[in-house]
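ok so I'm stuck.
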Amino acid sequence: MMKLAVISTVLCSAAAFAPAPQAKAASALSSYEGEVGVTAPLGFYDPFGYVDGVSQERFDNIRETEIKHGRVAMLAVTGYLITANGIRFPGAEDIPDGLAAFPALMAKADGKMVLFQMLAFFAVAEMVNRDAFGLAAFPGDYRNGALDFGWDKLSEETKIKKRNTELNQGRAAMMGITGLVIHEAMGVSILPGGYLPGQ
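replied:
not stuck anymore, here's the structure
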């Protein structure tokens, strides 16, 4: 089994150095190469051609979904690391961290209420965090003409930089929470000191 994994890794890494095909649909690629989120080192990265030939509206919907998932993942990584550090809400000191928290919450009446409150919060957040009035300047802009915090005073260059930063940090967080959860499920710690949540 280990030999198969090593061989697969070698073959996949060798494919990374193969020349890229040049006969890609230039019109589909070039229409999105100038979008926010096309940053070094990957540039416009769509290896499966997911956005080839899609409309701008569909692309914006995909981008909004990516932004939303990135925001949730950033919160998830933060919460995972905070609870792994031993920090809990008052009254929840006996709830384990990591994935073990869910069965522990389901085992208590108060825990079930916490899970219900989480679901209610997610539902409300999904309803509120959207472009309610068609005022969005870009995908993921949920200010709805009310919240600004100085955004409109920023230069266009700074706005693009901040939007790229959010997208890239969201992408990193999506990979980060995936890695944390997979390593916990495998029983392999990647946290400092070899700490394994849920144990």
